[in-house]
Amino acid sequence: MNKKPYRPGPKRPSNATRPRGRNRQMGGKKEDTNLINDEIRAREVRLVGDNVEQGIYPIEEALKIAEGQELDLILIAPQAEPPVCRVMDYQKFKFQQRKHAKEQKAKSTKLVVKEIRFGPQTDEHDYNFKLKHAIGFLKEGAKVKSYVFFKGRSILFKEQGEVLLLRFANDLEEYGKLDQMPVLEGKRMTIMLSPKKPGKKKENKDAADGADNVQQDNTPAEE
What we know:
Elements: E1 44-48, E2 55-58, H1 59-68, E3 72-77, E4 84-88, H2 90-107, E5 113-118, H3 124-139, E6 143-149, H4 158-171, E7 176-185, E8 188-195
Parallel strand pairs: 1-4, 5-6
Antiparallel strand pairs: 1-2, 3-4, 6-8, 7-8
């Protein structure tokens, strides 16, 4: 059986150009999904922006307007009818998008929840130690999930566990607000506290019993 001779397909002309303003990553992948200039296939588009007379234009006229200002025609709302385009420098458009995304990321803080576990018969030393840690967590802006774990027959002391959690929430009143009253789920009785002023220190060193060393740096000097 004779094999057909290999015939390579047509090569791309050496003078072929890509749409002006397009940024591409290594490997030929597009940096984004925004179509620009000759990539836009709509018959007509709606132009928006401060540098154009807003309205609906045939795509040819919209491209001429962008070219006349030495800018790019950027498709920003492909789902609209007709699609919406903006006339501006593509690199500036991408810079503004990255800046906006960075600002939004900075505003959306990641929720951090710290857990503190008690037994139904926690002694005073252990209670104060955990109270000190809870104060630190709330001051850092984290939520505090505190629970009493009932093991075996210790479930008989659930009222004692509830009293312990309510005392804990009361001692942390200066630092956090109680999101929910003690709730018994299986072998755990839980409360949740949210910080009142994340990241800010309080100036009242007597806010919680047993937290003597927590506020030492904020104690005002006596005259």
